[in-house]
Amino acid sequence: MKKTIRDYDLNNKRVIIRVDFNVPIKDGVILDDNRIKESLKTINYAIDNNAKVILLSHLGRIKTEEDKIKNTLEPVSRRLSELLDRKVTFVKETRGKELEEIINKMNNKDVVLIENTRYEDLVNKCESSNDKELGKYWASLGDIFINDAFGTSHREHASNVGIASNLPSGIGFLVEKELDMILPTIENPKRPFTVILGGSKVSDKIGVIKNLVQIADNILIGGGMAFTFLKSFGLPVGSSLVDNDNIQFCKDMLEKYKDKIILPIDVVTADEISENSNSKECFISDIKDRDIGLDIGKETLKLFKEYIDSSKTIIWNGPVGMFEIEKFSNGTKQLLEMISKTDSLTIIGGGDTASAAINFGYKNSFSHISTGGGATLELLEGKILPGVEVIDEKEA
Ligand code: AMP
Question: What fold, for 189-380?
Answer without folding.
Answer: Rossmann fold (3.40.50)
